[in-house]
Specification:
- The structure is a homodimer.
- The first copy, chain A, is an alpha+beta fold.
- Chain A has two domains: 275 residues, 3-Layer(aba) Sandwich (Aminopeptidase), CATH 3.40.630; 121 residues, Alpha-Beta Plaits.
- Helices cover 34% and strands 21% of the residues of chain A.
- In chain A, the strands form six sheets. The first copy, chain A, has a six-stranded mixed beta sheet. A four-stranded antiparallel beta sheet of chain A has the order 12-14-10-15, with helices on one face.
- In chain A, a hairpin with a 2-residue loop joins strand 4 and strand 5.
- The first copy, chain A, is globular.
- Chain A starts with 5 loop residues before the first helix and ends with a helix.
Chain lengths: 448, 448
């Protein structure tokens, strides 16, 4: 690594420790205002003009802008909030007292995603110091509610849409794979999260009356079976209509990924994957097939031993992961229509979360440009994830407002063992340093 | 009522208060030994030769025998244990400090079933005092684990089978209906209580991987659907084979019952019963149809809001209520076979409880004799329940050991508002007095 960056690597380390000492747990309303102030100050220290975007009591969004040599404008997205640290007792050091052990830095939020904020900040300091100004214009939006679903993101940002417009966008994520190849993520699945609730009686009954009183659990089982057949296919008419196969370029990208099949089989204790899929077919299913998952089933008695009860109500929590050309609103509508058509008007559907899929085409010029920069920096051809299997609720809104292509560049500092959302979240300090250098290299490259 | 019984009614009241002051909560191992001693002493005071039947740490069974004028031998069954009193805060007076309010006596166990023990004891004192001896020979078995499923009943009693042999048996239950007609219960459904458990992975996964990892909740839903079709019929081959329609006599008995349909619709907040059944058809379904009930469904996340998890395991708790000619072992075997045949060998079946149905034919001479006695005592034609919708786990074993016909005579002292198993359990004191007189009348009648 370029030795002149060492002071900025140290600075990233200091910045990250300072950020991680601030709790900022959105779900628990803890430390949000203080951390927003710190982040705004850190942006000012790095040369940004800042402002706060707010709506009611929602965590404020910190916004910064800094003109660079080139009029090319890049929007960066991050979040300063973190997951709750519980269960606390499983942490080897206190979650908000960052600690270095064996070359790793442990703290809640260190990987998701304060590490990336620190690496980006330190890189910007380096570029300003070494080049006199930034190579490009940077707009940076750092929200405080990502870990609770970015519920007010659109409401807060929409009135300031002009601030977000840019020529390209780097969202969070993107790092290096276990073979040290840079990873570019081009999109995320959408999601429709619903509760299906059915109540057949006002109160539970003795199960001796099961012959004559209606059963909520059986009713729910029947509704679920109407949604998803024994062949694993979703039965909602039109559900698969918009789904497209991967393009040749996307398929090539899937072929270039590390499989991690043996590792996954070991982690989950399974002999094989669904439908005995392996290799590219497995990666294609994972990336490009929509899903229909039962996240929770709740009815009646769940304790030890015998309780002979006919439950009055039953509930299923479900998430549908949506692929390009599907929409959350469209699937919700089709689900409601399907249950009505099949005679399940008594099943109440509550939408708890909804976001559309987002995908930047693999042959987009921005993708090709970042791919070339990352390859040239690292000496390895990047691994491209056309669609991550998870969902980023804000992403569709963000991309619409930016009005340009976006991706997750390898500017993040996590690794396979980072334990995001879990106890003992950590990063490797060398990855933080590499993150600073990656950011410097790619930002400089975008200015050429 | 025969004025000469008033001292024995007072005695029943005193005995009942003494019994209810002793907790005797089998599920919580509380007061069992003390209450067993008290019950044994009360039997001795009433002229019984007693002994205790025991096995290991199980609550002891108190047994008593008293010869009467006639060699006709009647076996009485009761239990001295009670349900836990929780939730305590809903009781208007402490559950083990019996209190009289508005002509009712409130205490845990007063209805289920210490009231019947007290009424039977007081009647036996009356018969001894007024007639010099009992009209018939009485054997009485009073167990201490009915409320926890009588798990060791057979083990404890089998070695002493000779003690239980009798010409007839009165088990617990049986009282008067809301029109003050005596109720005779001729049998109870059997039950098979199972847990169906499926585990598809060693640990939960992020639901983004739902396309490629196996889903335990979907697997469980499919297995449940294979057991019970959308038409409400059980799909297990042979399940209905042994089921017989009620005999003309049983159908006549159902026709003579009070419907209570409006009351049930109000209690459960329903507009109609399953399949829009009413009248005799409804009572027939309730009494003579086997059931397949989901008592509990448990998988994944059941809390508030969103958790995007692919659960590793899922569990259903189910009870099958069985009618005459079905057996718990037979249904268990058929269920296991059916799931295997349908490809659900990964569903683990654990049997948590099993008992066979028991039914004394309505034209049995004992039934006709008790029916005539109850009619002559009360002035009303008895209401006959050929099969109660619930199950008494010990009943099949008891009837086998007695080797004679049995039923629940109207010797119990409960009413529709007794709240058995619930807070503020109570009886009407007038019903206790009537219970003493009913017992005296019927026991005398059996001696003629």
């Amino acid at each position: 690594m370029d030795g002149s960056l060492q002071p900025y690597c140290d600075r990233a380390h200091d910045l990250l420790i300072e950020l991680c000492r601030h709790p900022s747990i959105a779900a628990q309303h803890q430390g949000i205002a203080e951390t927003a102030s710190l982040v705004e100050q850190l942006l000012r220290d790095a040369g940004f003009e800042t402002r706060r975007l707010t709506a009611g009591d929602a965590p404020p969004i910190v916004y910064g802008e800094q003109r660079g040599r080139s009029p090319f404008t890049l929007l960066l997205y991050n979040h300063y909030d973190v997951q709750p640290p519980e269960p606390i007792e499983l942490w080897e050091s206190p979650p908000f007292e960052p600690e270095v052990r064996d070359g790793k830095l442990y703290a809640r939020g260190v990987a998701d995603n304060k590490g990336e904020i620190a690496a980006r900040l330190a890189a910007i300091h380096a570029l300003r110091d070494q080049d006199g100004e930034l190579p490009i214009t940077i707009r940076w939006i750092i929200e405080g509610a990502e870990e609770i679903g970015s519920a007010h993101f659109e409401e807060i940002v929409q009135p300031h849409a002009a601030l977000l417009q840019a020529d390209a966008c780097f969202w969070e994520g993107g790092s290096y794979d276990p073979d040290n190849r840079p990873v570019l993520g081009l999109g995320a699945k959408g999601m429709l999260y619903v509760e299906l609730a059915v109540r057949c009686m006002s109160t539970d009954a003795h199960s001796g009356t099961a012959g004559i009183l209606p059963s909520a659990p059986w009713r729910l089982v029947q509704a679920l079976e109407a949604i998803h057949g024994p062949d694993g296919r979703v039965q909602i008419p039109g559900f698969y209509e918009a789904v497209r196969p991967p393009t040749p370029g996307e398929r090539e990208a899937l072929a270039g990924q590390i499989g991690m099949e043996a590792e996954m089989r070991e982690v989950y204790g399974i002999d094989s994957f669904v439908d005995d899929l392996t290799g590219i077919a497995l990666r294609e299913r994972r990336a490009f097939a929509p899903t229909c998952n039962i996240a929770g089933l709740i009815a009646g008695y769940g304790g030890e031993g015998i309780k002979t009860v006919l439950p009055a109500a039953a509930l299923a929590k479900m998430d549908f992961r949506l692929v390009p050309n599907q929409t959350a609103a469209g699937v919700e509508h089709a689900l409601r229509r399907h249950l009505l058509d099949r005679g399940f008007g008594d099943i109440r559907i509550a939408v708890l979360g909804a976001c559309d899929p987002t995908l930047t085409p693999i042959d987009d010029p921005l993708v090709q440009r970042v791919r070339a920069l990352a390859a040239s920096f690292s000496g390895s051809e990047p691994s491209i994830e056309p669609l991550i299997a998870g969902s980023l609720p804000l992403l569709a809104t963000l991309m619409r407002l930016v009005g340009a292509s976006g991706l997750s560049a390898p500017t993040n500092v996590t690794y396979w063992g980072s334990r995001g959302h879990a106890p003992n979240e950590n990063i490797r300090i060398d990855d933080l340093y590499r993150g600073v250098a990656t950011n410097v290299y790619i930002l400089r490259g975008l200015g050429r």
